[in-house]
Automatic annotation (TrEMBL):
Protein name from the UniProt record: Signal peptide peptidase SppA
Location of the Peptidase S49 domain: 109-260
Lineage of source species: Bacteria, Bacillati, Bacillota, Clostridia, Eubacteriales
UniProt KW Protease keyword: yes
BP terms from Gene Ontology: proteolysis
Protein family according to the UniProt entry: Belongs to the peptidase S49 family.
Record's keyword annotation contains Lipid metabolism: no
């Protein structure tokens, strides 16, 4: 296949992605439905890294916007036909603020009288577990990777490399801590203490949110909140998950909690990345060539992330 043909295919896919991104956002998408028009279970998908800001619905999108998810949750709260909501999670986590924003909207949704069930796919860890902990019930597959309750912050120190390359940097700042985390020098003792205090505060917020959502003592959750990941089967033994099952089990549970009779009617709400569906298992291979900040999962040049 010639380079011109390959380039044409790539440009065509990008153009199609741009067009579809305008039509598949929360406010413009008509939910797929089945069955009658009453007593529905709404489904909201959270796939990829959770972050604040505008949604990226392009071809290489691998994250989800907390603002878009929050708007979709508010829409579900206003819909009289939605009796319960399933939050379908397949995410390694994300930033603390973004996870908090979604968690707050879930709490408001529950306060409106609607039941909310978290359904965990391959992974629902860190910030994604924070979101799940805000729901009424959590359903996970036995092999789901979840937990990872903790916070991480990393900053590179490239001073040695700069010295070898003959690169120097002059910094002019209004205060001693304005350039905290600079890659051109080591972190000072005072800065290290400041960074750690930030991490400790966010960590405590995380633990408090999980303890509140799971109706457990903070000290009990703290014993599990060392950043480790659990399988779904381990998590249910520890009280981090309520039930083992798949997506369909979560829908049935949501319908039962909402008092719906028979097989629940499903209404998919919000945006679901069509490229992830279209490309299937090749999706992650495509994304592996794209440089993105790792907000969770062990290494991060991002200011901080949940882990």
């Amino acid at each position: 296949m010639s380079r011109k043909i390959i380039a044409g295919i790539i440009l065509g896919l990008v153009a199609l992605s741009v067009v579809l991104s305008f039509n598949l956002r929360t406010g413009n998408r008509t939910p797929r439905q089945s069955g009658s028009d009453k007593g529905k279970v709404g489904v909201i998908y959270i796939e990829g890294t959770i972050a604040s800001g505008q949604s990226d619905t392009g071809l290489l999108s691998s994250g989800v916007s907390s603002e878009e998810i929050a708007a979709t949750i508010r829409k579900a709260a206003r819909d009289p036909e939605i009796g319960a909501v399933v939050i379908r999670l397949n995410s390694p986590g994300g930033t603390p603020a973004a996870s908090q924003e979604i968690g707050l909207e879930i709490e408001r949704l529950r306060q409106s009288g609607k039941k909310v069930v978290a359904s965990m796919g391959d992974v629902a860890a860190s910030g994604a577990y924070w979101v799940a902990a805000c729901t009424d019930q959590i359903v996970a597959n036995p092999g789901t990777m979840t937990g990872s309750i903790g916070v991480i912050m990393q900053t590179p120190n490239l001073q040695g490399l700069y010295d070898k390359l003959g690169i120097s940097e002059e910094t002019f700042k209004s205060g001693p801590y304005k350039d905290m985390g600079s890659s051109s020098r080591p972190v000072t003792t005072d800065e290290r203490a400041i960074f750690q205090s930030m991490i400790d505060d966010i960590y405590n917020q995380f633990v408090d949110a999980v303890a509140k959502g799971r109706h457990k003592d903070v000290l009990e959750i703290r014993k599990l909140a060392d950043g480790r990941v659990f399988t779904g089967r381990q998590a249910i033994e520890l009280g981090l998950v309520d039930q083992l099952g798949d997506f369909h089990d979560a829908v049935l549970l949501a319908g039962k909690l909402a008092g719906l009779s028979g097989e629940p009617v499903i209404a998919e709400l919000g945006y679901k990345n069509i490229w992830r569906n279209f490309l299937g298992g090749a999706w992650e291979s495509i994304l592996s060539g794209k440089s993105m900040p790792a907000l969770t999962g062990g290494t991060s040049a991002y200011p901080y992330g949940l882990r």
